[in-house]
Write the structure tokens for this entry.
Amino acid sequence: MLDLVIEASALAFHPYVLMYVMLGVLLGITLGAIPGLSGDMAIALLLPFVFFLEPAMAMGLLVGIYKGGLFGGSIAAISFGVPGTPGAAATSIDGYQAKLKGKPSKALHTALYSSVIGDTTSDLVLIFIAVPLAAVALSFGPIEFFALYAFSLMLIAALSQGMVAKGLAVAAIGILLAMIGRDPITGSARLTFGMPGLSGGLSLIPVLIGIFAISEVVVQGAKLWRRKVDKLMDDVAEQASLLQGYDIRKDQLSWVEFKSTLKATYIGAAVGTFIGALPGAGQSLAAFMSYGLAQRFSRKPEEFGKGSLEGIASAESGNSATAGSTFIPLFAFGIPGSATAALFGAAFILMGMTPGPSLLNDNTEIIYALFFTLIFANLVNLVLGKVLLPYYSRIAMIQPGYLIPAVFILAIVGTYAANNSVVDVWVLLFAGVLGVTLRLLKFPLAPLVLGFIIGPGAERALRQSMIMGGGDWWVLVSSPIAIGFYVAAVVLILLFTFALRAKK
Amino acid sequence: MNRTMVRELLSVALMLSLGVAGLLHIQYGNWRVAPLVPSYIMPQTAYYFLIASGVWVLAMLGLEARRRRQGQGADEGPAQDLLAIGLASGLMLGGAVVYFWMVLNLGLIVSTYLYNAVLIAVLAPGARLKSILLVPVLVAAAVWVLFIQMIGITLPPSLLF
């Protein structure tokens, strides 16, 4: 064990890996601070480059972007009342009010510290829970695995934006996209519609970049075209005038104030870690639930919504505490519980590692190095965030009209570069059109990605189960563990449906 | 009929048409027969889910319409500007097809410069001519360094560079 820790730490603390972590955090905070651009989009765009990096370096870069992006979202939320990422929506409630009251520095520092505490708690839970859970998963057969896949799909479909039917439909579309290509058992071509280019199936990179990045960029482009940005810039100028006569010396977060936010931070860390481990629940739900609970247990609940530092701490800690635990289902069972985990799962696959219980056994050294990187990235996030905080709120004012074309071009050339494949570029544009259509019709996108990634595994488990049961569908409920998963899915869906209604 | 209702009806139409078309394709298409577990078992399950979800949304729409008639309806959210998204999709995704054709035939640097300049001219409000001409130079240079020098992607021989 000691040897393993030494080898993993040598890998994780290699100067190049550290450099990539710092670069990632810097990129993540910068992109997260710009409304409309998110860490997920940056991770999707960087997937083609994973091919060209050592696994530890690639993981360092992606982890850095993810963690930086989580905190970066709160900068725009506090500075302009515009959440940089969906997870920062709850932070903007009190964060923006605090800024309007002349406390932007206190608000930003509270967000930074609570984000790092929540994130670190979640990482520690991941480190200590993923390994034993993966050992349990090794005893699963196809019936249990199919139940687990169905459990994850049901949960992610039900909890993504609270639209169960649309979530299930879009997960089905994701599974259908994954079925394109050769049937793994009979070898015959399926759903290729006579196009030889599709017989190998759709590659992960163009589908993920198309669904996440291209569709987002097109929607942002449409907003720009309508000159909404002019209004945003006017608002920014108006808000800047509010800060005339602002004295930063009077706006320093004191130790007493920091201590007063700790209870809210711990509530957020606990709630976020739990919610993050559930497939589909997501950062936004974790932040709002943490905010609600912290308000209930606060000594000054009446200050929530009026610039309360406790409100900022709970929301930001809850949001960031999903960061580590969202990887628990991916590491233990091979099931990405969120869009970010799906992107990391794709990165693992691109590096030749299969997410799931065997991931830890087959790649012990690199996964333990990843654990070290997760913790180290929090430290980098804290230091870089602290040093660069005064400059970051200006980043949100960069005109997206100059950034979006560059992002779009990078997506196209990056997709081509991954496999030198022209077909991949057409798949990317098709996925972009699909993503825009689904966004317009208000379908959640995360279930589609989950369906696409776990589709082949779910099909394999289903067909193996059916063979075992002689073609009888009842075989799927013949295992107590499988029944447990189906019951748990129904209970959790009902529980969260009621919780979401109460929130509204 | 309000915009939300139209959007949801379009969603239902998408789900039902995809589900029904898929089942018809399974019924009449050329699928290889396999004992116990035919190769269409997973797609078929997905199509059933699509149809069931479509019916579910339709039922919810019926309930919502009834509630609205009784005066309990919720206020409508902000409307999506379909025209803006349609135009942006046309310009960016249609333009991307032209851009990639140009990359393969004219060259990566020239195509990147031209496409980036066009997008900035259309998307950046109040962009000055100097920015439209200079920013694409930086982007084209970054693309060249990243993809040609560092990664070394292979592109077919082109007319320019």
About this structure: Chain B touches chain A through 67 residues (CB under 8 Å). Confidence is low (pLDDT under 50) at residues 75-79 of chain B.
